[in-house]
Amino acid sequence: MCINNKLSIREGFGMVAKHFVDECILCGECLKGCPVFLEPRFELVNKGPETVIEKVIDLLKGGPPSKEVYKLVYGCTKGCSHVCKSACPNGLALQSALVSAGHRLQAADEGLPPSAYQHMFNHHYSFGRVFGDLQIKESEAPWLKEVPSEPDAVDVVLFTSCAGQGFPHLVLDAIDILRRMKVNFTTVGARDLCCGCTTLTHSMPEVTARVSEKYITTMAKFGAKKVVSLCPGCAIFGNSFLPTFFSVPFESFLFTDFLADNLDKLPFTQPLNKVITMHDACTQGQLFGRWDVPRKLIKAIPGVTLVEMEHNMENTICCGYITNSNFPGAMDDRYYARLNEAQAVSAEVLTTTCLACQLAFCPRETQYPFECKHTITLVAEAMGIKHEDKLKKYLIIGDPDKVLDEARDYVEASDLSLSEFNHVLPSYFERMCVSPKK
Ligand code: SF4
Ligand code: SF4
User: Fold this and answer.
1) Using one digit for the tens of pLDDT, what is the confidence trace for 287-340?
2) Fewest CB atoms within 10 A around its CB: which of 28, 203, 205, 265?
3) Which among 45, 76, 98, 100 is the best mutation to test ligand 1's pocket, defined by most ligand atoms within 8 Å of the CB?
4) CATH numbers and ranges of domains, the chain
5) Cβ(304)–Cβ(16) under 8 Å?
6) Which ligand is nearest to the CA of 99?
7) Within a 10 A sphere around the Cβ of 243, how many other Cβ atoms?
8) Closest ligand to residue 48's CA
């Protein structure tokens, strides 16, 4: 499927795979800083980078699947590509070759990791649906759940992102912030919408083609020049991936980058008086290397002292959340490595612009003398806007029975039944809640 006779996604990735096979010299440089390769529990590092890459090439050439390639494909964050791509002497994009490798794994009947459903926007038990329903009733959500065929035109569409639906407090913060900035906008939170990045990173090119096309045509109905999302994945995908395959009539922005680009419109009213440190999400680097942009925003908040962690900006370390979500527990050490760095600089708040990093850190703040807050929350607080972060509260409670009791009214209002919540919450909490501090 294509728009305006552009390449199909399958054709595009076929070409990427062929280029990779033709140009890779098997030097292994790309893997020497790769968090998945380096994690001892994956048992890739002991095989050596050249051997692992050789297995990737073998599979791309039609050879057999291997457990090494499986781990690399579904462990790959697809977000920290600045690490592997910039290390490659031929500038090859390993993470794109891994998308094709995943497709070959699936053709060989190697299934997705059991917990991959949590990323799938349209899955009955997706993260956005399960955690969104625990926190806000559909009748109370002030965003469009369905987009009319001819909606009113706006300047900006705020897209909750499929993952963002699990963070209703951030969506509500973002809506209030845009209102105070007097932006002409509407908010879209339809459950059947996703930019396509989650299906592509799980190597499903045909599904991605359908999902992305629907996303673009739906957003285009508003005539907006800017689509602003809560998830960095939508912004990266919207600017650097979708235009390769589709005609995209709007620019895509991460919400916090949009704020940083409009500092003069932010009506701050309350100094925060906090020492804040920033975990640079690897996705921020994919946003055209805009490491400095969230810093501009944080520094503009009155009463903030920004201190830097040992590893920052292009030297940041991936938090590991995306890998951990497919391979539970494998990357917990990384969570604590980042949290320990924040403690070392005596921060009062650790902030990040990425939803995944926030999930990695926020349940663990009880083990540290600082709070973990998404950057949107900080901006909102400095404008006197406050929406309860029930997600963090529930993850800190960490007990499905207690959470379901506390969220009883919301469970009753959900189209998921109590037995379905009982079925799925333990596996989420097992992956997301606190593990012993390292
Ligand atoms: S994107 Fe990150 S996890 Fe994936 S191969 Fe590159 S360095 Fe490794
Ligand atoms: S660094 Fe580049 S050339 Fe070397 S193994 Fe990795 S992809 Fe191949």
Assistant:
1) 667 888 999 999 999 999 999 999 999 888 889 898 988 998 888 888 999 999
2) 265
3) 76
4) 9-111 (no CATH), 120-262+404-412 (3.40.50)
5) no
6) 1
7) 15
8) 2
